[in-house]
Amino acid sequence: MTTYPPIRPARDEEIPAVGQLISHSFFELDANRYLVPQLDDRLKVMADFFTLLTEHAQKYGRVDVVDLPGGDGLAACGVWFDYTKESPEQEDYEERMNALAGPYIERFNALDQLFEKHHPHDAHWHLAFLAVHPDHQDHGLGGKLMTLVHDELEAAGVPAYLEATNQNNVRLYHRSGYADMDPFEMLLPDGTAFYRMWRAV
Questions:
Q1: Strand boundaries in the chain, DSSP class E
Q2: At 143, phi and psi to the nearest 5?
Q3: What digits encode the pLDDT tens for the residues 101-113?
Q4: Which residues of 14-35 are buried (b: 16+ CB within 10 A; e: fewer)?
Q5: Whole-model pTM?
Q6: What is the percentage of the chain residues whose pLDDT exceeds 90?
Q7: What pLDDT, in 10s, does the model give residues 61-81?
Q8: 174-192 tens-digit pLDDT
Q9: 153: domain CATH number?
Q10: Residue 37 lies in a domain
Q11: pLDDT tens figures, 47-58
């Protein structure tokens, strides 16, 4: 049985590595195929996108990581935003998005508009990304990352929110205490679905 180091907070200098991990883990998701249909571009564009958002979470939320056995790289991460208080807009977001997305910017704009339209208004923490390296899945790392934060949120009486990317993930999150919201499904222009889920306390 593989033994992993304890969960720890990400260091600032590790945020690009977190973005790379998420991009690698999410490479085959339908949403990523929509955002960057060109295979040769997808890994880098999505890594830059996830890094941009994770930078903001590092300041106004939390980023937890699990190191690979031996400590040479990351096996898993959880990226959360704190919506229990006001946070500033991300600096230079539009300029950086235009630069990283290039010809795909309209697709990313559609994603932003979809998420903004359907984001809940009640105070909560938002699980933006839960990623496990494909070579290290099925070891319970994602569940451990969630449980760490869920226990703290429960103690504080704070709910959690996420957008699941497929029905397999919906079932996973159901087991972690999340319930379907109404409306549950929200669609990108090509019909790719996300599923809104809420974990009450």
A1: 8-9, 61-67, 74-82, 125-132, 160-164, 179-187, 193-199
A2: -65, -40
A3: 999 999 999 999 9
A4: bbebbbbbbbbbbbeeebbebb
A5: 0.94
A6: 90
A7: 999 999 999 878 999 999 999
A8: 999 999 999 999 999 999 9
A9: 3.40.630.30
A10: yes
A11: 999 999 999 999
Kindly state the DSSP code that residue 176 receives in the 8-state scheme. Answer: T
Instruction: Give the domain extent around 30.
Output: 8-199
- Surface-to-core class of residue 2, CB atoms within 10 Å of its CB (0-12 exposed, 13-18 middle, 19+ buried): exposed
Q: Using alpha carbons only, how large is the chain's radius of gyration in Å?
A: 16
- Whose structure tokens read 């704070």? 158
CB 130 within 8 A of CB 80: no
**What total of structural domains would you count in the chain?**
1
Distances (CA, A) of 143 to 54, 66, 78, 129, 195: 20, 12, 10, 13, 19
Length of the chain measured in residues: 201
Among 41, 53, 42, residue whose Cα is nearest residue 16: 53
CB 74 within 8 A of CB 68: yes
- Whole-number Å distance between alpha carbons of 10 and 12: 7
